Amino acid sequence: MISRIISFSAHNRFLVLALTFVATLWGYYSLKNIPLDAIPDLSDTQVIIYSRWDRSPDIMENQVTYPLVSAMLGAPQVKTVRGVSDYGFSYVYVIFEDGVDLYWARSRVLESMNRIASQIPSGVKTEIGPDATSVGWIFQYALQDESGKFNPGDLRSLQDWLVRYQLQSVPGVAEVAAVGGFVKQYQVRANPYKLAQFQLTMKDLLNAVRDSNQESGGRTIELSGTEAMVRSRALVDKTEDIENAVVAYNQRSRAPILVKQLATVSVGPEMRRGLTDFNGKGDTVGGIVVMRQGEDVPAVIDRVKERLSEIQKSLPEGVKIVSVYDRSGLIDRAMETLKGTLIEELVIVSLIILLFLWHVPSALVPIFTIPISVLLAFIPLYYFGLSSNIMSLSGIAISIGVLVDGAIVEVENAYRKIHLWHESGRKESFFDVRLSALKEVGPSVFFSLFVIAVSFLPIFTLVDQEGRLFKPLAFSK
Poorest-confidence range of 43-57, 275-289, 321-335, 379-393? Predict the structure, then answer.
């Protein structure tokens, strides 16, 4: 079979060259569009359920975590369910079997959560994590105040209400998590003696504070053929809005009893663990960009950087967005390593062939064979949905040496046949001599490469993290 393929190719050179040219363009297209990453995604297909409730860990465990874990155990293709309870929150990790689609897994988790919604106490806020994996952390930035006019609370407000929402609209971004600073909050410190003096309870004060931050709509008033909408606006914007809220009325004088008569209202920070300031002092505010599963990392990072440059124009003077972590640098270095290895092997092989054979046409064989083979390898990688990462590029790099061995065997045998042809007086045609040389060693070279390829088949039997780590290398090899 191999001899017939070699013979057909030799007698249809223009057809083979045309097909090779088309396949090379196809390989170049695949190389440009294949997703890039630094390392293979080693994480399991998992969905995280996050619950918040201001209760002790044992209550969280019994009334929130346990019902969720019990419900998830019955979900299809679930491998492991883990639960962690702490004060005020709990995490449930639902890990699915290998090969399960992430969005199919998320839909199964949502179905199970809806089924047991009635068993969860009221007031529990439950949500599932973003559609990302554990290696989705691709970019991190910080808001740096160079003017000294803004405190961590102001920077956190810019992050939460300006930067975050614009970045979340970038294609490929699953979540933008805020780091550092503090969330602005209004603290109401009740005076129990004042409450007792006015015969009021803590619940009365709590209801008054809650009602002071609500809007409500009324009906319409028709006047002179026009309609006016009636509504109340009561969103809290400053401490005075809470202080002037009415808790009750004095039964004798009918004068209103305000919050400021019963409690002290102030603006207090809810501290967040954040980044160290670039000058080594204070606390700085930043954000973590998490990518969706299966996206192209450099493309998403480029879109994030482009959007950050647009957001920078709308920030107050003195606030600057700086990059803290960027995975694209690691990916670029991995690609440069492959390019360097390819060039080095091309140069070394060509010099060795020229040194021992002193024949330029023979040296051209590996020079053209290696780049074309590398480009063709990206076609199945692209359509199998694999990414170009350190492991898959390593498989290509170690394959170049084996590929060169086959090319050298072909070249040396052809060179020997041509040399004997010259000594015998050139009785046969050069085409027949060259073709017979190729057909003589072609099947042996093919099966030697085939044996090496077969030796990598056991890698595909690996499972879990080992399989996800080494299978890209075996595929590319």
Answer: 275-289
**Torsions phi, psi of 31, nearest 5?**
-65, -40
Res 316 pLDDT > 80: yes
> Would you place residue 275 in the very low, low, confident or very high pLDDT band (cuts 50, 70, 90)?
very low
Residues in CB range of 218: below 8 A, 6 or more apart: 229, 230, 231, 232
Given a contact cutoff of 8 angstroms between Cβ atoms, the answer to whether 73 and 62 are in contact is no
Residue 90 phi, psi (nearest 5): -150, 150
- Burial code (b: 16+ CB inside 10 Å, e: under 16) for 151-178 equals ebbbbbbbbbeebbeebeebebbbbbeb
Say which residue, 308 or 35, is predicted with more confidence. Answer: 308
Say which residue the tokens 């017979």 belong to.
Answer: 436
Average pLDDT value for the chain:
85
Contact between 71 and 126 (Cβ < 8 Å): no
Residues 6+ away with beta carbon under 8 Å from 213 = 234, 235, 236, 241, 242
- Bridge-based pairing of strands 46-52 and 89-96 is antiparallel
Cβ contacts of 279 within 8 Å, gap of 6 or more: none
Per the structure block, which two tokens stand in for 140? 């991190």
Residue ranges with strand state E in 369-458: none
Cα distance between residue 229 and residue 227, in whole Å: 7
Task: Work out the percent of the chain whose per-residue pLDDT is above 90.
Answer: 18
SS3 state of residue 100? coil
CA 188 to chain CA centroid, Å, is 41
Answer whether 23's CB lies under 8 Å from 376's CB.
yes
- Helices and strands (H and E) in the chain: how many: 16, 15
Task: Render pLDDT for 12-28 as a digit per residue (tens, 0 to 9).
Answer: 889 999 999 999 999 99
Q: Greatest CA separation found in the chain?
A: 131
pLDDT over 60 at 253, yes or no: yes
CA distance linking residue 216 with residue 136, whole number of Å: 41
Determine which helix (DSSP H) or strand (DSSP E) holds 47, and give its type and residue range. strand 46-52
Q: What six digits make up the tokens of 202?
A: 């803590």
Distance, first Cα to last Cα, the chain? 23
